[in-house]
UniProtKB/TrEMBL annotation:
Pfam families: Fer4_18, Fer4_5, FixG_C. Residues 284-313 form the 4Fe-4S ferredoxin-type domain. The chain crosses the membrane at residues 61-79, 111-132, 186-203, 215-236, 369-387. It comes from Methylobacterium radiodurans. This is Cytochrome c oxidase accessory protein CcoG. PROSITE patterns: 4FE4S_FER_1, 4FE4S_FER_2. It comes from the Bacteria. The gene is ccoG. Keywords: 4Fe-4S, Electron transport, Iron, Iron-sulfur, Membrane, Metal-binding, Transmembrane, Transmembrane helix, Transport.
Length: 502
């Protein structure tokens, strides 16, 4: 087949769409018509993308290797935190209620940082979408990354697009069974290791690997691996583009975050139309008649992992991966024509070129500035909070019954449960003082207020009694301030409560 001839496996004859059933401005083809009359859903046609080479494909390979390398290898990175502390660089220790990220240690009380990280990720995603469309979906989304990996395995075992289509249409044979079995076995191995890598973030990775291999790990670990194995195998191996189109909410949200100046993968119709085969285009141009650069070869459609025709305009199914641009550039290179017929462009540029005006570029505009400021603000606030956060904490709970006790000498006693928090990897000794009540006397049951030890990276409860002498006791409740201090580091912490009296 020459480049000037349409691909007969893809060039389904267009037919008019039924009223109310037009798909995002795209022409509905016979392949999209339900197999059963009256059905509300179209029968899914398996998509077999063509392998391509080019700039976007190279970037996707590099990001795939980087992201998968991070995911699979990070649990094995070691980080020295001192004696008795976990040595895994990134660890979510559910037993101790700690999250370790290299030198950062977060406690359950630090949940605000987790919320801040989620907010930061949302604003960063908004910014990426406003600048370059669905660049996250096309290059960094886990569904895209694992689907790319699964399709690469499929391509190595079963061949490229034409070979896979031929294998799909062929009757079952020994060769087909062997190829399909090998493919699915490797898919399951990748999915299994994906689930295994996930549980390594929740326990010491080398130890857990040995326990898993010797069947000594907890049932929860095996259940988590089995669940993630099944979901990875199903989503990346079978559902593929269906996840992006029907399960993911982002395609329906992104329209509100983009505008005419957002970069998207677009077909430059001002240059490509009218579509004309190579030989006829030469004749038309010689006669002074218009002929576009698009030769209607359908290479862009064959390369698309979502199976859409980018020449029909922006569509919800498109993940902006750029593989159609690589396929088109390859064809243009063989024809001796300049590349870029399909590529990142803006709708404003398309309209500007159609009017014969110079290109328009507006990266800095109100929405991108706003998203950038929000990203910088949230990120800066989190960094400041991490840099200035205290490694000492204090909480006080007043006794509920009795609220106070009047002693025989007329003094009043209140009881409190005081919890001291030590977030450092060494034992610390604190002194306790109380402000707000004149001539108050403080006692620590089983200890002294001037020496209250707290083990490393832990909390410790103390029973504290506060006495108000008979001559100075209040007539009602008064605010009370508890203060602890570490004489070694100079760190302090305060907590407020009340002193109850008759």
């Amino acid at each position: 087949m020459s480049l000037a001839e349409p691909n007969d496996t893809l060039a389904a004859a267009p037919i008019p769409a039924a009223p109310g059933r037009k798909k995002f401005g795209a022409t509905v083809t016979r392949a999209a018509i339900p197999a059963v009359n009256g059905s509300l859903y179209a029968a899914r046609t398996k998509i077999q993308p063509q392998a391509v080479r080019g700039t976007f494909r190279t970037v996707k390979w590099a990001l795939l290797a980087l992201t998968l390398g991070i995911y699979y290898l990070v649990p094995f990175i070691r980080w020295n935190r001192g004696l008795g502390e976990p040595s895994q660089a990134v660890l979510l220790d559910l037993d101790r209620g700690r999250f370790y990220f290299f030198s950062i240690e977060l406690w359950p009380q630090d949940v605000t940082y987790v919320m801040g990280l989620l907010i930061l990720a949302a604003f960063a995603l908004f910014l990426m979408n406003a600048v370059a469309g669905r660049v996250w979906c096309g290059y960094l989304c886990p569904q895209t990354v694992w689907t790319d990996l699964f399709m690469a395995v499929e391509r190595v075992i079963e061949g490229d697009r034409r070979a896979r289509l031929k294998l799909d249409a062929a009757p079952w044979s020994v060769e087909k069974v062997v190829l399909r079995s090998l493919k699915h076995t490797i898919w399951l191995m990748i999915a299994w290791w994906t689930g295994g890598a996930w549980v390594l973030y929740f326990a010491d990775a080398p130890t857990l690997v040995i326990e898993l291999a010797t069947f000594q790990a907890s049932p929860a670990a095996y259940l988590a691996i089995l669940t993630l194995t099944a979901t990875t195998y199903t989503l990346a191996g079978h559902m593929r583009e269906q996840v992006c189109t029907y399960m993911c909410p982002w395609p329906r949200i992104q329209g509100a975050l983009t505008d005419e100046h957002s970069l998207n993968i677009l077909y430059r119709s001002d240059r490509g139309e009218p579509r004309t085969p190579v030989k006829r285009a030469t004749a038309l141009r010689a006669a002074g008649r218009p002929a576009g650069d698009c030769v209607d070869c359908f290479a862009c459609v064959a390369a698309c992992p979502a199976g859409i025709d980018i020449r029909d305009g922006l569509q919800m199914d498109c993940i902006q991966c750029g593989l159609c641009a690589d396929a088109c550039d390859t064809v243009m290179g063989k024809l001796g024509r300049p590349g870029g017929l399909i590529g990142y462009d803006t709708e404003a540029n398309c309209r500007s070129r159609a009017r014969g005006k110079p290109p328009v570029s507006r990266v800095l505009r109100p929405r991108t500035v706003l998203y950038g400021v929000l990203v910088a603000g949230v990120g800066g606030g989190m960094l400041y909070g991490l840099a200035t956060r205290s490694f000492t904490g204090l909480s006080v709970i007043h006794d509920r019954n009795p609220l106070f006790v009047t002693l025989s000498d007329g003094s009043v006693r209140n009881g409190y449960t005081v919890r001291l928090i030590n977030k450092r990897p060494e034992e610390r000794r604190f002194s306790l003082s109380v402000d707000g009540l004149a001539d108050a006397r403080v006692e620590v049951v089983g200890g002294t207020p001037g020496d209250m030890p707290v083990p490393s990276d832990s909390t410790q409860e103390f029973r504290v009694l506060v006495f108000a002498p008979a001559g100075t006791r209040p007539e009602a409740s008064v605010p009370l301030s508890f203060r602890i201090a570490d004489p070694t580091t100079g760190e302090t912490a305060r907590a407020q409560d009340t002193f109850k009296a008759p």
